[in-house]
Amino acid sequence: MKRFRLAVLLIAGTLSAGPALxxxxxxxxxxxxxxxQDTHCNASRGYKDRADENRDYxxxxxxxxxxIVIVMIYDGWEWERVGEILxxxxxxxxxxxxxxxxxxxxxKTTVRGIFEYDQSMMDRLAKAKRLTLDFEDDxxxxxxxxxxxxxxxxxxxxxxxxxxx
Length: 165
Hints:
Elements (H helix, E strand, L loop, with lengths): L1 H14 L5 E7 L2 E6 L6 E8 L5 E9 L3 E8 L10 E8 L3 E12 L2 E7 L2 H9 L2 E6 L7 E4 L3 H13 L3
Antiparallel strand pairs: 1-2, 2-3, 3-4, 4-5, 5-8, 6-7, 6-9, 7-8, 9-10
């Protein structure tokens, strides 16, 4: 779960700055938290997939009135160039969200997408059971991440944001 903590730290670096947990709650296997050093709350979920050699999958979502940030970690990736910008189509199990979106390589197993805030994107994520990244010219690195109870997790994230201290 080191990658899980890394994802939370990456989100923190995107929207904030300082240490320690301040607020935390659980929605299913999602963690909703507002850490003392963060400006915004995070919703995060990690799991191992038995069907994929027990590899770790982690997703962290946060947002502000200006941006939505999604970090995805998959220990099956082996990105070589930190800072490289990748292009991927983003979708859910029932809707396309964005074509050719930009994702930045954070380390060999982590990518981060930063998007202008769009309520329709949040609505599609809330209805989803899976989130997919289909990387251009790279089917081997495309991924489907399970995000059950995303609607509840995003509602809790919104509540956290509205009540953050």
